[in-house]
Amino acid sequence: MTVRLPAGLAAAALLLPALGACDKAAAPVDAAKEAAAINARIDAFNAAAKAKDPEKLTAIDADDVRIYGGAQNFTGKDRDLAFSRTAMADPAYSVVVTPEHTEVAKGGDMAFQTGTYESTGTNPATKAIVHAKGYWVGAWRKAADGTWKLAAVSSAPPPPPAVPKK
After folding, report:
1. Are strands 61-68 and 110-122 parallel, antiparallel or unpaired?
2. What would the pLDDT profile of 18-45 be if each residue is shown by its tens digit?
3. What is the spatial distance between Cα 28 and Cα 44, in angstroms, rounded to a whole number?
4. Which domains does the chain have, with CATH numbers?
5. Listed residue (54, 72, 75, 74) closest to 64, CA to CA
6. Distance between CA atoms of 111 and 95, rounded to whole angstroms?
């Protein structure tokens, strides 16, 4: 006598090994290694800023990067490139960003970073050299090729000094 399994039960038996693979945990993410890779992107950004190379400066951007704070808010690597070309045409232009904290998600595909910035540029209206310092926060996304891309960044000046109590 031959025993015939219902088609659904036979299909389930065939899928059982594949379902067992879903139980296996993904390889742990080396957060320190990923943070170092992100910090290397920041180092490249700072080197490009010093060299006044807008293409290399915006190489860290995701195509749909969102940029808030500073002179303008905009979306897109192309917009950042155009903005950076204009900013770098200023002989007084400089910017340095310093990461202070980097945290990588457990999945290893997202991260956030906080830090400080210092920038210099010429005020177009007054022609005076303006120095600025402040804080920034960035969100990073791992691209399909394994590189980290800046997905969003926001900057803000430091708060005003506290007024002494009388």
Report:
1. unpaired
2. 444 454 566 789 999 999 999 999 999 9
3. 27
4. 28-156 (3.10.450.50)
5. 75
6. 23
